Amino acid sequence: MTFNEYQEKALNTANYPTDFKIIYPALGLANESGEVLGKIKKVIRDNECIFSEDKKEAISYEIGDVLWYCAVLAHDLDISFEEIFEKNISKLEKRKNNNTIQGDGDYR
User: Fold this and answer.
1) Among the four residues 1, 15, 21, 107, which has the most C-beta atoms within 10 Å?
2) Is 103 a member of any domain?
3) Is 104 a domain residue?
4) Residue 103: predicted pLDDT
């Protein structure tokens, strides 16, 4: 499945008021990101940072939810998922080639 195919399939399951078409998925993205972090935090606290297969699977479901919200948010902003991935990799490759992977700032 391509990134754009995923985005299209995600949109088929989107069900939220169009009046809130940008804020709703943005809030969902923040919420689901927190769920990923919460599951990781509990593995650190309760399992001495050892990720069992069950924990990995639970985290993978939450990452899937993060991707879903990214896909619908991008669509609501008229951005293709493919374009986002291509631009992101291009940015990171440029940083690697310029030895600026470390550091901070968007334009390094």
Assistant:
1) 21
2) no
3) no
4) 80
Average pLDDT for runs of 10 along the chain of length 108: 94 92 97 98 97 98 98 96 95 92 81
String of b and e for 33-65 (b: at least 16 CB within 10 Å)?
bebbeebeeebeeeeeeeeeeebeebbeebeeb
pTM tops 0.90, yes or no: no
Domain assignment present for 105: no
Calpha distance 96→108 (Å, rounded): 10
Query: CA-to-CA distance for 11 and 76, rounded, in angstroms?
Result: 10
